Amino acid sequence: MPVTDTTTQAFRMIGQVENLCTGTLISPRLVLTAAHCVFDQSTQTWMDVKTFTPARNLSADPFGSVEVERIHAPNSYIAGDDRQDLAVLVLKQPIGLKTGWLKIGWDLQGFQSHTSVLGGYKANGTITGYPGDKADGSMWVAACEFYVPSLMPLLLCEVLMKCLIVDGIRQIAYIKIFKSTRLG
User: Is 14-183 assigned to CATH 2.40.50.140?
Assistant: First the structure.
C-alpha cells in the first residue's frame, strides 16, 4: 500500500538513493542499501551515485537531498556473490540528526518456532521502499514473513523472507559481517 505521509517517524529515515533505489538511514550519516544500486557486476563498474533523499514523496523532498561522500560494498559482491547484495553509503552531512535512523535489532518476542525439520524462527513484518513499477518517488509498504534459521549468533546468520519482490519492491534482508570494498 502507498505511504501518504513519508515524514512520520516510521518512514522519514527511509529514502531514495539517486532516484532509483531504496536506502535506510542506520546512523546520522550511514545509509544501508543494495549493492546492485551502486555497483554493476556485469560491467564491474561503480555507478554514479551522488545523492540520498530521505522521506521522498513523489516530487516533494521534505528534508532535501544529501551528497554521498563514500560507498562501501562487500568484496564478495564485487566478485559476483549476489547473496551479499548490500552496501553502505557515507553521507557528507548528518541528515539523520533531522530524520532519525533505524537501529539494527530484533524483537525476539515476535518470533515463533518454525515447523521445519531444520528449526529456526519466523515472524511477520513489513518492508518499505520505492518500487520501480510505481510512480516515481512514491513510497510503498508491504507485509512479509521473515525466517531466521537460528537466533544465535544473530550477526552471522542470514535472514530470509518469502517476499523478495512485493508490489515492485526488491528488498534485501541479509545481516552479515563482511569485508568492504571502498569507492573514493
Answer: no
